[in-house]
UniProtKB/TrEMBL annotation:
Phylogenetic classification of the source organism: Bacteria, Bacillati, Actinomycetota, Actinomycetes, Kitasatosporales
Keyword Protease attached: no
Annotated protein name in UniProt: Acetylglucosamine-1-phosphate uridylyltransferase
GO molecular function: nucleotidyltransferase activity
Protein's organism: Streptomyces cacaoi
Record-linked Pfam families: Hexapep (PF00132), Hexapep_2 (PF14602)
InterPro entries: Hexapep, Trans_hexapeptide_repeat, Trimer_LpxA-like_sf
């Protein structure tokens, strides 16, 4: 897997159970995963592929489906009825809430929050049939993914239309439809989603201290606006 600062490496071992690489010593994925943290829990009624990897301390709730070659980091929570697609990577301590749909090849960094009924799409031009009317097959289209940076949050029923990147610690409001990349720390709302402000690591909306300077009202952390290479405005830490 290619890693970026927005999508930290998710280790195959230690603390991850179920991949082909570790099955020789742990056995197939089951309802008990010994490890340094508390064992992972897979609730009755959940479907977890034997080719998936589930990190220690992770909980997979009823009716969730984890597909082949998906990797869940340590201490994640996968809610009731959620779907994690083939090969999807979910960073440690992330939460995917009830009935969220995370389609491959999505990548989620550490500490990501995916709210109830959120959808991360993977098809630029969705069709059930080809131009000649024949059913489309898996080989007839190329999946594209959504990347979600560390600490970002997507509110209930938000939709991300791939391919897009959600920046680190960004906040996507409930019901928003994201059709373009979201900068780090951005607060976006609406259809299509647009930036209306900035948020800090605490999730609180930042308050202005002066031109281009922002502060978290909860933690006192300070941030500065900067210009990205494409000319757009981004936010960065003001800490040394």
């Amino acid at each position: 897997m290619t890693t970026t600062p927005e999508t930290p490496e998710i280790p195959d071992a230690p603390g991850v159970r179920g991949t082909a690489e570790v099955q020789d010593r742990t056995g197939p994925l089951s309802r008990s995963f010994p490890g340094s943290l508390r064992p992972a829990r897979v609730l009755p009624g959940a479907q977890v592929s034997e080719r998936a990897a589930v990190g220690d301390g992770t909980t997979v709730w009823e009716l969730a489906q984890i597909r082949e070659d998906a990797v869940l980091g340590e201490e994640c929570v996968i809610g009731r009825g959620a779907y994690i697609g083939t090969g999807v990577r979910v960073g440690a301590r992330s939460k995917v809430q009830n009935h969220a749909l995370v389609y491959e090849p999505a990548q989620l960094g550490e500490g990501v929050f995916i709210g109830p009924a959120v959808v991360l799409t993977n098809d630029r031009n969705p069709r059930a049939v080809a131009a000649d009317g024949s059913p489309k097959r898996a080989g007839d289209w190329e999946p594209v993914g959504v990347r979600v940076g560390r600490g970002a949050s997507l509110g209930a029923r938000a939709v991300c239309v791939a391919p897009v990147r959600i920046g680190r610690w960004a906040m996507v409001a409930a019901g928003a439809v994201v059709t373009a990349d979201v900068p780090d720390f951005a607060l976006v709302v609406g259809v299509p989603a647009r930036r209306i402000g900035w948020v800090g690591r605490s999730g609180e909306r930042l308050r202005a201290r002066g031109p281009g300077s922002w502060e978290c009202p909860r933690t006192g952390e300070r941030y500065e606006e900067a210009e990205a290479p494409d000319g757009s405005v981004t936010l960065r830490d003001a800490r040394p």
